[in-house]
Every structure is written in C-alpha cells, then in structure tokens.
C-alpha cells in the first residue's frame, strides 16, 4: 500500500546539475570551445621537499560530461604524465615556470592542488539531519570537537556522503588542512604564474568529470573568479529548451481547451439555469461534508500546539529531543536523556498520552554519556482518559 506519510527529499541542485550535463550533448564541441578552451588538468602535489607536476589529458569545461567517474577522479591511471619533479625553492619554481610557458597543453589546462596524507586529514562525521541546510557553519562551530584544531587555524570543506543514513542522522566527509600548509603551497603555485581551480585531498580526490559536485579546500578569497559569459549562455540555452518543451506540451492542450470551451458555452446557453442549481447544490453538499470531517477530526484528536506544550511541561531540562513526528494519533520522539526508562512513566501519567513504548534499544552516547532513545506513544483527546486502570 502506498505510504502517503513518507517524506520525499528532492535535491533540486542535484537535479539541475544532472539536467545541465544532459543538455550539454546538444551543444556542438566547437561552440563549447568558443567560451572555454580548457583541456586537461595539471595536478600539483608534494613528495617530501619536492613539488610534483603531473598532466592528465582530457577536456573539462563549463558543460560537464555526464559520464560516471572512474579511477583516479574519473581518468585512467595510465593517462597520468609526470611533467616534472623539482625542489620547493626559487630555482625549482623558475624551472616549472619555464616548462609551463613552453608547453601549449599546460597553458590550456586547469590546475589542481592535491594534498597528501601528511598535509591534510579526512574523517567521516555523523551529524543530525537538521544540519544539512547549513553544514559548513555547523561543523565550523564544533570543529574543535572533531579535530585537534580550531576553525581559525585551518581551511576545511564538508560534503554529504552518499548512501543510506540512519533516521534523523546525516553522514558527512570532513577534509581539512592547516592554513600554514595550504598558504605555502598556494604561494608556490602563484609564483609559477598559475591559479588553481581547487584544492583537494588525494585520499578523497574529486571526480574530474563531475567538478560541479566537487569540494574545495581553498577559501573564497583564493579561488578563481568564475566567468559570467559561459553561465549566462548556459542559462539562456536551458531557458530556451525549457520554453520549447513547455510550448510543445502546452500548445495541443490549449487548442483542445479552446474547442471544449466553445462546446461548453453552447451547452450553457441551453441549460444555464439547471447547471447553476446543480452547481450550487453540489457546492453546498461539499461544504457540509468537509465541515463535518473537520469537526470530527478536531474532536477526535488533540491539537498539535497542546501536544508540544504538554511535552515541554512534562519532560525535564536534562532531556532533549532531536526528532519529533506526529501522524494519525501516533507521536514518535527521539533524543537523549540521563535516564531514558523514566520517560515511559512520565508520558503514561499525562492525560494526552497512552501506550508509551520503546521502538528501538536504548544506547549510550559515548561523548555526552546520555542514553539515546526512540519512543512512540499514542495520543488521546484531553479528558477522555489514557486507558490505564
């Protein structure tokens, strides 16, 4: 049976990115290159005191390819070409600068700064689902809980992890590096005359054929300024395709509507009075039925405001709720408490609640030392009794 209470979470940003990639097939390659001639990638990383420059062939512009990502960020390992290994000093940077100036491939390539395991760390976090809307701010506020650093000491990026999450929970990937490390590498790259597209961590490298979903360790003031022309043209193309699709769907319906409307006007001339009486009677019956349903529903269930007020009154301040759902006289709550077992008795003693029970085992939060609980309880109209003897 279809469950109409199921929450449908639609990420419109993901949909628009997918749509953009699909529309890119309609744009000829020559037109794409008129707005962005970037081809391939120069990946800069370190190995001890040396800088390593590698070239990855391939095309990447504003119109991203829709294909899935493979190994090494969407490109085959055997395609990687080591350009140079130089010391991190003036002589090494000068050598790289001269090498880049003499190779046309490198001048047209996007630059990526890729940090090693000695320069960055990556870990998975479990956060409340409510943090999804402002994930960066939530992690920044409690960064010293997850890492030995404070927010002002590091550059970091947070990205939701695809997969099945526990109810009320969100898995996210945290990647960070110290400001000293990234600022130093950025200065070396700028000295070569290059500007990195983004900085990432080799243990969780971005897919190079899906850069619209990439994370970036570079702060806003160090990032490349995005050209407006490709975005404007792409927006115009999307709007044009949308208008054409809408016209194709709407025009036949509009003509049919006009035909039906003309026929209905002729019928109304003949049966005008009869239709008015029938319409009025139908409206009256509908209003009566809907009014009675509203009255019955209101008399059968307590008001939501009353439920929330009662919960706020009976639950002590040392207990907090992370999740609450009310549907069809059933209330489900999740949270943490020093003694979760006492909540059953507290809820049963209320006039609004009955049949309180745990729907999952009680566990302990190793950090806060509080007991995690998930309780479901039935609701009754105040004054009707909770069914207890």
Polypeptide structure, described:
- The structure is a single chain.
- It contains twelve helices and 13 strands.
- By secondary structure, it is an alpha+beta fold.
- It folds into four domains: 12-226, Nucleotidyltransferase, domain 5; 228-270; 271-299; 304-379, Gyrase A, domain 2, CATH 3.30.1360.
- The strands form three sheets. Strands 3-2-1-4-8 form a five-stranded mixed sheet. Strands 9, 10, 11, 12 and 13 form a five-stranded antiparallel sheet that branches. A three-stranded antiparallel sheet has the order 5-7-6.
- Strand 12 (363-364) and strand 13 (371-379) form a beta hairpin.
- It is flat, with a radius of gyration of 31 Å.
- Residues 60-78 have low confidence and may be disordered.
């Amino acid at each position: 049976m279809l469950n109409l209470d199921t929450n449908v979470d639609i990420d419109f940003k993901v949909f628009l990115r997918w749509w953009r990639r699909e529309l890119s097939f309609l744009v000829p390659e020559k037109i794409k290159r008129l707005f962005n001639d970037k081809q391939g990638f120069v990946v800069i990383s370190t190995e001890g005191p040396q800088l390593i420059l590698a070239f990855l062939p391939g095309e990447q512009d504003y119109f991203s390819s829709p294909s899935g990502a493979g190994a090494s960020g969407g490109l085959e390992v055997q395609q990687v070409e080591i350009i140079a290994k130089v010391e991190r000093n003036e002589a090494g940077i000068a050598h790289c600068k001269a090498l880049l100036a003499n190779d046309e491939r490198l001048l047209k390539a996007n630059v990526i700064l890729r940090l090693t395991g000695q320069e960055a760390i990556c870990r998975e976090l479990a956060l409340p689902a409510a943090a999804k809307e402002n994930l960066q701010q939530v992690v920044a506020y409690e960064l010293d809980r997850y890492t030995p650093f404070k927010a002002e000491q590091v550059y970091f990026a947070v990205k939701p992890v695809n997969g099945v999450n526990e109810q009320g929970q969100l898995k996210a990937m945290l990647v960070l590096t110290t400001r000293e490390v990234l600022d130093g590498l950025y200065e070396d790259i700028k000295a070569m005359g290059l500007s990195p597209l983004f900085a990432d961590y080799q243990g969780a490298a971005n897919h190079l054929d899906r850069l619209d979903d990439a994370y970036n360790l570079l702060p806003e003031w160090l990032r490349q300024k995005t050209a407006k022309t490709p975005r404007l043209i792409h927006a115009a193309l999307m709007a044009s395709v949308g208008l054409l699709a809408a016209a194709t769907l709407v025009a036949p319906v509009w003509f049919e509507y006009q035909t039906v409307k003309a026929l209905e006007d002729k019928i109304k001339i003949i049966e005008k009075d009869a239709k008015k009486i029938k319409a009025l009677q139908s409206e009256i019956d509908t209003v009566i039925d809907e009014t009675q349903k509203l009255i019955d529903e209101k008399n059968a269930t307590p008001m939501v405001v009353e439920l929330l007020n009662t919960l706020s009154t009976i639950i002590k301040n040392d207990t907090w709720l992370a999740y609450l759902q009310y549907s069809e006289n059933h209330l489900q709550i999740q949270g943490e408490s020093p003694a979760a077992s006492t909540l059953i008795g507290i809820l049963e003693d209320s006039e609004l609640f009955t049949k309180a029970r745990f729907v999952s085992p009680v566990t302990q939060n190793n950090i806060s030392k509080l007991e995690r609980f998930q309780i479901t309880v039935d609701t009754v109209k105040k004054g009707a009794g909770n069914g207890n003897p």
